[in-house]
Design brief:
By secondary structure, the chain is of the alpha/beta class. It is 36% helix and 19% strand. It contains 12 helices and 8 strands. The strands form 2 sheets. It has a 6-stranded mixed beta sheet, sandwiched between helices. α5 crosses α7 (156-171). The longest helix is centred in the last third of the chain and has 18 residues, at 293-310. The N and C termini lie far apart (44 Å). The relative contact order is 0.15.
């Protein structure tokens, strides 16, 4: 049975229109696919952009918080946008970050980390760690409760979330109460069944995209040993000591099997983990077809999981 015939009927229309990413042929065009029209800002959320010190000099962060704040310290989320380590910008997740603020009653900081191939590993994870430490160092300014800090991201941002959780554990902080790497890009080996299964040109992320993006992120590295788990979280020797975790993936997502393996290893390491597998769904389906019933169900699930974690 081919890829498209396995997709839920309510999701199929977008596949006929999606041109597919051509990362090697035209990376700039592929990047443009992720920059949709500006959203209508919510009157209930106040958004600011600012430059913070970073390894590269300065880095943009976007800060989302309730428009009407009391003196209460709020929980905080560091959000990491997706794009396979080679595409994306915080602007593309404005609506989602506003939703996190309103449902989870929190402050969200979204980081504009450097992208490969212009800036291969470790640029992106260094920027994410810089964003996390800046957010916690500036807790008083931001009105953040340091006992309730979480990290989250989707796809490539999910991979960076998983890597950041490992880095924060190994460096002894900042302390995290929760991580939410959604359908994360965490294994460069491309040996799972699902990594061979999703090859269609109109899949939102296929094997060709994945091989290309990993090569770009790793600087076209060829040797297969000694790569840091901060680059490839699936290569971490131990997942013990990571924060409680929520993740999900579509059954027709190239990342299905590496996500399932990650969830299994988390559970075996004694980490509390909640996991959902959605049949008939492909990579980033809830972003591509947000009005579909299954899309609303999955996004409600992870937004509410964050709210529960930040308000125990």
């Amino acid at each position: 049975m081919d890829f498209e015939s396995r997709v839920l009927p309510e999701l199929r229309s977008v596949l006929a229109e999606f041109p597919g990413f051509q990362l090697e042929e035209n990376l700039e065009l592929s990047r443009s696919y992720l920059s949709g029209p500006p959203i209508e800002k919510s009157e209930h959320v106040h958004t600011t952009s600012r430059m913070i010190p970073s390894v590269a000099g300065e880095m943009l962060v976007k800060i989302y918080e309730p428009a009407q704040r009391t003196g209460a310290m709020l929980p905080a989320l560091l959000w990491i946008h997706g794009g396979g380590y080679v595409m994306g910008h915080p602007d593309m997740d404005d609506a989602l970050c506003e939703r996190f603020v309103q449902v989870a009653k929190c402050v969200v900081v979204s980081v504009d980390y450097r992208l490969a191939p212009e800036h291969p590993y470790p640029a992106a994870i260094d920027d994410c760690y810089t964003g996390l430490t800046w957010m916690t160092d500036e807790a008083e300014l931001l009105g953040i409760d340091l006992d309730r800090v979480a990290i989250a991201g989707a796809s490539g941002g999910g991979g960076l979330t998983a890597a950041l959780a490992l880095m924060a554990r190994d460096k002894g902080g900042p302390a995290l109460i929760f991580q939410m790497p959604l359908y994360p890009m965490i294994d460069d080996r491309n040996i799972t069944a699902s990594s061979h299964e999703i090859t269609a040109d109109n899949a939102t992320w296929n094997r060709t995209n994945n091989l290309t993006a990993w090569n770009m992120y790793q600087g076209n590295r060829t040797e297969d040993s000694g790569l840091s788990p901060y680059a490839v979280p699936s290569r971490a020797e131990s997942l013990a000591g990571l924060p409680p975790t929520y993740t999900c993936v579509g059954q027709l997502d190239l990342f299905r099997d590496e996500t399932i393996e990650y969830v299994t290893r988390l559970a075996q390491a004694g980490v509390d983990v909640e996991f959902h597998l959605y049949p008939g769904t492909f990579h980033s389906f809830e972003v591509m077809v947000p009005q579909a019933e299954v899309s609303q169900r999955v996004s409600n699930s992870y937004v509410e999981a964050l709210a529960r974690a930040l308000h125990p």
